[in-house]
Amino acid sequence: MLTRPYDSDRHPEGTSLDFIFPQEFETSLEAARATVGARFEVRRFFWRERNEIVFTPPCSYFELTRFPSMGRYLASARDFCEQGEVRFYPAACPFQMHWQEREQRSLFCRIDIPAITGLPMELSNQQLRDTIDMRNPHVRALLLRAQQELVAPGLCSQLILDSISVGLAAEMVQQFGPESQPEFTSRRTFDQRYLAGLVAHIREQPGRVEIGQLAAERGISVRHYERLFRTATGESPAAFCRRHMLALAKDLLMDRSLLVKEIAYRCGFANTASFSVAFRQIEGCSPRQFRDRLLIH
User: Fold this and answer.
1) Whole-number Å distance between alpha carbons of 133 and 86
2) 36: pLDDT strictly greater than 90
3) Contact at 8 Å (CB) between 36 and 43?
4) What are the start-end ranges of the H helices in 124-266?
5) HTH araC/xylS-type domain: from which residue to which, for each copy (predicted)?
6) DSSP per-residue string spanning 223-258
7) From its phi and psi, is residue 250 left (phi > 0), alpha (psi between -120 and 50) or beta?
């Protein structure tokens, strides 16, 4: 069995893709895969004498399970409610749960939504309560497909799981993000849902985002689109797209089975040289040097 201590100070949000579990139970890892801004794991748990726990997740994650339990967020100070098949635990939100059964099997998806979408995730008390039983059919379908790819991987499992992690992040922003940024009220401005969809598009088809097409979709000129975009985000559309293309590249560099030239192509660059120049401008080192540093740390 694999057992690891739970330490909420060791891994603040965004610094690790690893799960950390309490010492009150034993857990065995059945399958795992790191993806774009996320990590998926299938685990089996064997509880000891404990049937209740209060914990503070060091990272945000989904759980897909049929394990019956009751739970509540301490911040909301409400009564316990039944946890659903799909659950989402936001980072740094103390949670209390209790159960009766001694064995559990779950799919976990540790996900960094701000890193994937470029947007913050701040949940109200009511929204926190909704995460205890996530009744979002799209999220459930994505997690079920992820579980299938983990248990029985295929030729394109990595690409599918990359897409699933982006889809999960976009669904969360779609469901829980504010309708629009308060300082902009026009239907043509760039709310969080629009930006989340654009980030998903950039990650799924990097290098194929055309500003002219984006402006046409909004029914405005390219110049007006760029002005509104810069006002809403603080950067140009081109810089926004380049930043998220390179964020995708950094995630892919963690997979040492991928060649740098493959990553350059997947991120929309015509060749390795142009990819290296752009990467060095942002990170101060080449893609290969960045990958080597990951090994050192």
Assistant:
1) 6
2) no
3) no
4) 125-131, 137-151, 157-176, 192-204, 211-218, 222-233, 237-253, 260-266
5) 192-293
6) HHHHHHHHHHHSS-HHHHHHHHHHHHHHHHHT-TTS
7) alpha
Share of the chain above pLDDT 90, in %: 24
d(CA 75, CA 92): 11
C-alpha 247/C-alpha 241 separation (Å) is 10
| Residue 121 structure tokens | 């995730």
**pLDDT at position 24, please?**
58
4-39: burial string, b at 16+ Cβ within 10 Å, e else: eebeeeebebeeebebbbeeebebeeeeebbbbbbb
DSSP category for residue 287: H
- 95-99 and 69-73 beta bridge pairing: antiparallel
User: How is 4-51 classified by DSSP, letter by letter?
Assistant: ----TTTS-TTS-------TTEEEEEEEEEEETTEEEEEEEEEE-S--
Is residue 248 within 8 A of residue 115, CB to CB? The reply is no
Give the residue-averaged pLDDT of 5-23. Answer: 44
Contact 221, 228 (CB under 8 A): no
Query: Which of 98, 124, 110, 131 has its CA nearest to residue 13?
Result: 110
Q: State the virtual CA torsion across 47, 50, 54, 60 in degrees, nearest 10.
A: 0
What per-residue string of b and e applies to 177-194 under the rule 16 or more CB within 10 Å gives b? beebeeeeeeeebbbbbb
